[in-house]
Amino acid sequence: MEIFFQQLINGLTIGSIYALVALGYTMVYGVMKLINFAHGDLVALSAYIGLVIMMQLTGASIPNYIVIPAVFIITAIVIAIIGVILERIAYRPLRHAPRLSAVVSALGAGMVIQNGIMLIWGPRPKIYPSDVVPAVYWNIGGVSIGLMQLIILVLSLILMVVLYIFVNKTKIGTAIRASAIDQLAAKLMGIDVNKIIVMIFVIGSSLGSVGGLFIGMYYKGIYFNMGWIYGLNAFVAAIIGGIGNIPGAMLGGMLLGLFNAFIAGYVSTTWADAFTYILLIIILIFRPTGILGERVAEKV
Amino acid sequence: MKRLLLALFVVLAMVSFSFAAGTIKIGVQAPITGKFASEGQGIDNAVRLWVEQVNAKGGLLGKKIEVITCDDEGTAVKAAICARELVNKGVIAVIGSYTSTATEAAQATYFRAGVLQTSDGTSDTLVKHGYWTFFRNSSPNSAEGKFTAEFFMKFKKYKRIATISDYSTFSVDLEKAVYENTKKLGGNIVYRGKIKSGDQNFTPILTKIKSYNPDVIYFSGYYTDGGLIRAQMKQLGIKADFVGGDSNDNREFVKLAGSAAAGAYIINVPLPEYLPYDIAKKFLADYRAKYHEDPPSIWTLFNVDGLRAILHAIEVLKTTDTKKIADYLHNELKDFPGITGPITWDKNGERITSAYMAYEIQPNGDYKIVYPTK
């Protein structure tokens, strides 16, 4: 039973990160019907930018409880700006082009970011300082949980709840939902869809940046090409939950993390990735729109 | 005509002079330029430094030693040319080369000419040709496996051992060597697993390993994963020791593992600065004094050790007959005190005394040699 609960914690930790990144995919897809393949690399970039900001701040002898929130906020702002620029350069000119062009553009943008990271910071892994978040662990009945894990779980949960309330209870949230259903009708109702899309990129990129910082602070080592792995997993999570659906991305991320941990723990570590895709295929067979995705009634 | 005669005279004079001086010629075949230039130059510098010191004390058998260097650029083609050139110049022994490729390309030429060769090449084929002229002076994966097994069983006396590798050929082979040697010593391996390099989240496999309750987790992959494995072990409250293979020997291992790095063991051929032998300390100090830098790597020192063993044989036997020297090195030389540890060769010219060491990482990130115990 100890092992079960330990794998549960292991799975929820990585699952929270997947969920945060998956939200970026799902929101952009929801409104623009575009898979933003550059999102994973944006997450990787945020880990690097976060490290730079952290090094600047820790050099200035500011206490850590100020440094860490500051790093999160500044990085989120920087990445949100980059996300908006990305939309402006890579996606807006293609908004009325065939969908495939935009996907290719997204892949290209991802490569530009990835290679940019490599050119600026080099191909060798960079390492986060180990003393920023103290390595404190609690042992509850043989199950271990660390301070950083707790921060990841709690902060992810808060962000997701805030996002859910924002989308469902505010005026802008309503506009976002309206744009997701039908952009043209939304425009006719007086919604500035361009502004909504900028908003989507701001939110999606900031959430991704939190994910990137979690990766850096929890796993320490960051790589210029790590965006691909995390991006792919988050993308799968978004599809499992139902792409375009915000609670779906959260659920998909958590499920994927848990599924990985339990397969690795009880079946085989070697097969964990293969089982992820088997799960994906099974879900797509029985629920093509994902677990929480809406069934679209086809008109005949 | 006059000029030609003069030239002939000069050449004759030079030839007779070199005969009269009667130097002992030692060749260096190394990549002085190209991708491995720093390693090649290190070998050349170190050999020249040692020879200078021997000459300063009056040389060997009353003769001075002369070093002839040939740049093989680390390639097979250049290596074959170098071999011919050095043989023609009358060397009795050649130190090098750095790469297995260049070493192998030159082996046959030295064998046919009866010229001794020592190299740090790690490829297993080097010692399988049956050339009596060849002496390998570094250790292959199998030797690291054997050393690691001895560290487990004889020094730490682990009862339950878990091993992890990644999917690379190197890591899989090393883990296999460790596994087989540990089994041979009667070790109890309770779990063997694999991780995907770069995955970062190793908590699922470590949680699984925890249920096997091992005394030690051995990892044969690279430091980028090893450091995280060590950190996540600590985080999961796994009390087992961590032992990492040679590719965990990197400064960044400590950064990745953070405070968990303390107490981790790493097995590798020693870094030059960690060599505990007096002769090593003196040689490194002399090298630094002369070239204002450290030798590029341990491989430099393996090559100097090859030279030292050969010079030692010449001194003991009082001859430069290569056949007799080879016999001596194969059969008589036991635990010759090398810079890189005791040197003994088997019949195939394989160095059987392991130069490996186990380090324990200290709380301040420094290394401490714990095995072999002095």
From TrEMBL, chain A:
One GO CC term, this protein: plasma membrane
Transmembrane segment boundaries: 12-30, 42-59, 65-86, 98-121, 141-167, 196-216, 274-293
Keyword Signal: no
Localization: Cell membrane
Pfam families, A to Z: BPD_transp_2 (PF02653)
Domain of life: Bacteria
Keywords assigned by UniProt, alphabetized: Amino-acid transport, Cell inner membrane, Cell membrane, Membrane, Transmembrane, Transmembrane helix, Transport
Name used for this protein in its record: Branched-chain amino acid ABC transporter, permease
Organism: Deferribacter desulfuricans (strain DSM 14783 / JCM 11476 / NBRC 101012 / SSM1)
Organism placement in taxonomy: Bacteria, Pseudomonadati, Deferribacterota, Deferribacteres, Deferribacterales
Automatic annotation (TrEMBL), chain B:
Recorded superkingdom: Bacteria
Organism per entry: Deferribacter desulfuricans (strain DSM 14783 / JCM 11476 / NBRC 101012 / SSM1)
Alphabetical list of CDD domains matching this protein: PBP1_ABC_LIVBP-like
UniProt similarity note: Belongs to the leucine-binding protein family.
Entry's Gene Ontology BP terms: amino acid transport
Alphabetized InterPro entries for the sequence: Leu-bd, Leu_Ile_Val-bd, Peripla_BP_I
Signal peptide coordinates: 1-20
Domain Leucine-binding protein intervals: 23-365
Gene3D superfamilies: 3.40.50.2300
SUPFAM superfamilies: Periplasmic binding protein-like I
UniProt keyword terms in alphabetical order: Amino-acid transport, Signal, Transport
Name by which UniProt lists this protein: Branched-chain amino acid ABC transporter, substrate-binding protein
